[in-house]
Structure formats: C-alpha cells, structure tokens
Amino acid sequence: MTCESCADQVRAALQGKPEVKSVSIDVSKEEVLVESSLSSAEVQALIENTGRRAVLKGIGGSERDLGSAVAMLAGAGNIQGVVRFLQLSDKACLIDGTIDGLDPGPHGLHVHTLGDLTQDCLSCGEHYNPFGRQHGGPGDAERHVGDLGNIIAGPDGRASFRLEDSQLKVWDVIGRSLVVDAGEDDLGRGGHPLSRETGNSGKRLVCGIIARSAGLFQNPKQICACDGVTLWEERDRPIAGKGRSKAGTDVPAANL
C-alpha cells in the first residue's frame, strides 16, 4: 500500500462494517490500525479483499500495557492455529484466534494448568482451576478459570473467534497451555459424570504453550529468528507444522 487511493479503498472496505469503530492508515509506514469488535482474521480478510496483502503485527489499544500472550497450536492431521491474549483491564481479557483443520461444529476451549507438551496434549494437565471450583461456562461464577466455552468451526474447518473473559488474567496463564477438544463442551450442564469436571468435550485435539508476546506495533522485527522467514514470506507459509520453515522442518512460528 503506497498511495492514498490504495488507503481510500482499504478505509472504505473497513468502514463499511458496523463492527468497525475507527480506522487509521499511515501510508508512509504501510500500517492500518483498526478499532473493531471483529476478530483479527476477519479484519485481515476485509483488507485483503481489496487486493492488498496484510500481516498482523499485534493487537492492543488500552492505555495501560497490562500484558499480552500468544499460543501457537498444532495437533493431529492438519489442525493448526494461533490464539492471542490481551489484558484489556483488570477485569477483562480479550482472546482472539483462528484455528484451521477442525471438524465443523462446536469444540471446547480450555486453558490447562501445565505448559508441558512432552506427550502432546495429554501432558498439559487438567483445566486451570486455582480456586478448586466445578466446571462451568465462561459466563458462570462457578467455573474453572480456564473454562472458555466453545468455539465454532465452519464448513471449511475454520474457527475464527474473539472472546472477552472476566476471570482469565494474562499474567496467570503465561507458561500454561491452551487446548481445543474434539467435541462440544456441555458447560457442566449435560448430566454426564464428566460434565462437572471437564464438560465431557471428548479427547484433546490440538494444544500449544501460552507465551508472552509483544503488544500492538511493539515488535519491529522483519525476520522470524526461529525459522529465518521474513514477515511477508511468513504470510505464504503454514502458521505451524510441516512447510513452516525454509527447510521444511516442523518449527512453530514466533509471534510477529
């Protein structure tokens, strides 16, 4: 994006959505700053529908930097994804993610206690539950802190979501893990013996360690040190798994 007419087209595409509150474009830096309730994947798609390519350089916007984190997810088959966490305030955490390769339908989403992938998702421990409560839904007072409810995968296998949670704190979950399950979490209401423990959402499909990350435009690097691809090369590669690095090895990408 190098001209004002390009910026005008991007601005028009974004401002046409009621979920977009404001758009700021700096042509000299080729940066677009969007304030919106849409997920980052939806914002990126709107920009790219104008014929421009886009990469996400962070999420943020609060006056105080209360912390941000990212989890790179990889699992069986072609399942892979990225989920970002941003602490908006002392009482609100934003969880924004895109996961591909899922079976269409709902899937349980939980933060687990351990950041241990030595046995894939089986070594992640139980749901993060520092107060010893029963399992529930994200809107319940009685729930595990790690209970984030369900995400919904569309017919193409993609789940794109943006959640706000009142109990999760970024500073408490860095170093733990995020897990997506095979089935729907019944939020503790299903009557099954596992309902009040795990939500009876089936086996663990995909997981990743939650790591500290830079906030909005705080990371200026152009090359990912973990696999040597540039920011724009990264756009054309899988977000995790085989084919991610130049050598074709299974190295997860760093947060750009």
TrEMBL record:
Residues annotated as domain HMA: 1-55
UniProt keyword terms in alphabetical order: Copper, Disulfide bond, Metal-binding, Zinc
GO molecular function, one term: copper ion binding
Species, as recorded: Takifugu bimaculatus
Alphabetical list of Pfam families matching this protein: HMA, Sod_Cu
GO biological process, one term: superoxide metabolic process
Taxonomic superkingdom: Eukaryota
Cofactor: Zn(2+); Cu(2+)
Family recorded in the similarity comment: In the C-terminal section; belongs to the Cu-Zn superoxide dismutase family.
UniProt-listed PANTHER family: SUPEROXIDE DISMUTASE CU-ZN -RELATED (PTHR10003)
Name under which the protein is recorded: Superoxide dismutase copper chaperone
